[in-house]
């Protein structure tokens, strides 16, 4: 089947980026996949259900593509499949390094969903599942240096910061020998969701240097803590202990 050539210009109302690393393990496309050219034109390089030809990206002249694009209305279903695939991979015989690497790749796509799409019970369910897998594997992996390098390599700042917080929280629990799930789960979930309130803050303000903020901007930015608790309280996924971490993380 011939690929559709330049379809239209990029629009953040139509497309969402997904890290290439999170889907590169799959031979077949779980949705239509697009590459964004320097001209801002979108080119489809894989049809849903068909084999993915990653070399096609290079033939369009786009090198070292770190993200590819999917239709916004298909993004949640794609992330669901990615989490399901990562969980199945984690139950296999792969090394801990390989499992954690896969989880981190999918986490970046999941954070994109949490930040840019409306929160739903399904999106929280995916987050809870993936967070549990990440925490379980971190506890059984003593080489935290590699974990930190993996997090640093992530592209989205929200994903990098939130996943880094999960890693650091678990690093602190190891020497204290906190292994009981009643301790590990709320700490990990609180770390994972602590900045979720930023989704309601203007994008240009989310990661602006605090020193450069006006008084009004600083007050708006600081409100993300309370907003996060309100968002999370809408669903019954988090324990009071995890919510307290979100509430008090500043």
In short:
This protein is 54% helix and 9% strand.
What does this structure look like?
With 250 residues, this protein is mainly α. It has helices spanning 20-23, 55-59, 75-90, 96-116, 121-139, 144-152, 157-173, 181-193, 203-206, 215-222, 224-233, 240-248; strands spanning 8-9, 15-19, 33-36, 41-46, 67-71. The model has no long low-confidence stretch (mean pLDDT 84). Helix 4 (96-116) packs antiparallel against helix 5 (121-139) and helix 6 packs antiparallel against helix 7 (157-173). The chain is globular.
- Secondary-structure-based class equals mainly alpha
Strand count: 5
Helical fraction equals 40-55%
H/I helix tally: 12
Strand order of the largest sheet: 1-4-3
Order of helices and strands: EEHEEHEHHHHHHHHHH
N- to C-terminal distance: 54 Å
| Shape verdict | globular
Which regions contain 5 or more consecutive residues with pLDDT less than 50? none
Major sheet: size, sense and barrel closure? Answer: 3 strands, antiparallel
Radius of gyration, in angstroms, nearest whole number: 19 Å
Q: Strand percentage, roughly? A: 5-15%
Q: Mean of the pLDDT scores?
A: 84
List the helices and strands and how they pair.
Layout: E1 8-9, E2 15-19, H1 20-23, E3 33-36, E4 41-46, H2 55-59, E5 67-71, H3 75-90, H4 96-116, H5 121-139, H6 144-152, H7 157-173, H8 181-193, H9 203-206, H10 215-222, H11 224-233, H12 240-248
Helix pairs in contact: 3-4, 3-5, 4-5, 4-6, 4-7, 5-7, 5-8, 6-7, 7-8, 8-12, 11-12
List descriptors.
mainly alpha; 5 strands; 250 residues; two-stranded antiparallel sheet
């Amino acid at each position: 089947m011939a690929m559709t050539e330049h379809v239209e210009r990029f629009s953040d109302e139509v497309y969402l980026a997904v890290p290439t690393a999170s889907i590169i393990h799959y031979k077949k496309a779980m949705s239509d996949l697009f590459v964004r050219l320097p001209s801002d034109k979108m080119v489809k390089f894989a049809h849903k259900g068909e084999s993915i030809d990653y070399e096609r990206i290079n033939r369009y002249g786009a090198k070292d593509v770190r993200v590819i694009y999917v239709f916004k209305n298909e993004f949640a279903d794609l992330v669901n499949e990615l989490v399901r695939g990562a969980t199945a991979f984690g139950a296999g015989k792969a090394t801990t390094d390989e499992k954690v690497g896969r989880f981190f790749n999918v986490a970046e796509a999941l954070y994109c969903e949490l930040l840019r799409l409306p929160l739903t019970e399904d999106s929280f369910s995916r987050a809870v599942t993936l967070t549990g897998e990440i925490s379980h594997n971190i506890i059984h992996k003593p080489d935290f240096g590699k974990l930190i390098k993996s997090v640093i390599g992530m592209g989205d700042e929200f994903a990098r910061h939130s996943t880094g917080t999960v890693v650091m929280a678990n690093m602190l629990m190891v020497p204290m020998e906190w292994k009981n799930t009643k301790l590990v789960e709320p700490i990990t979930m609180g770390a994972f969701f602590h900045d979720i309130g930023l989704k309601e803050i203007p994008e240009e303000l989310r990661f602006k240097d605090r020193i450069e903020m006006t008084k009004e901007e600083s007050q708006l930015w600081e409100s993300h803590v309370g907003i996060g608790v309100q968002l999370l309280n809408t669903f019954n996924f988090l324990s009071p202990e995890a919510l307290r971490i979100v509430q008090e993380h500043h």
